[in-house]
Amino acid sequence: MKKIDLQKRLKQLQDEKYRDMQVKIIPNIDPKSIIGVRTPELKSLAKEIFKSGDCGDFLNDLPHRYFEENQLHAFVISEIKDPGECFAEVEKFLPYVDNWATCDQMSPKIFKKNKELLLSHIKRWIGSEKPYTIRFAVGMLMQHFLDEDFDIHYPEMVASLRSDEYYVNMMIAWYFATALAKQYERILPFIEEKRLDDWTHNKAIQKSVESYRISDEQKDHLRSLKVKIRRR
Prior knowledge:
globular
């Protein structure tokens, strides 16, 4: 599908009220880059592009102009079944990811069957200077390595991160809140020992006590571990 045809198609799918909402929840990108297309429509279009067998030009055409093109890019990558091709496309696209939505919605299906390879990439991504590459790495650790593949070295990696980026710190907090729900006894020391920066520490606790997967007793203990943040 040619770029001009794709952009015309996206504009035909525009929902202006949805666009106005997206502008508010994704404040760090140019509002003019947001057309306003709902996610189910984008996923359907991404499958159409992928099944056409002619998505190479689209995947190579970086950077994109519109937020929705980035969303489509993430969804198309998520459909790729060949591990080598998929990881190559992720590597190529990550430097252009500029918002939390595109970052979080890119979740290739083949990662589940290639966790050793995924982990080797995560270890490199987490050391990136690009905030959304770091966020993606932490998100993949949260999604794929908190159950039977859990290892204490993984939260160690996340706890060692320090960033001034809001969307990185939010993902770290989300990671530890999810980790507490799944590996409470092994993760609790990270909170008790205050291994995170103060803001992220408190945010992780906040998200944990909002979870139905944390018991009332655990929530009470976590609340007692909140720290006071000095205002500058």
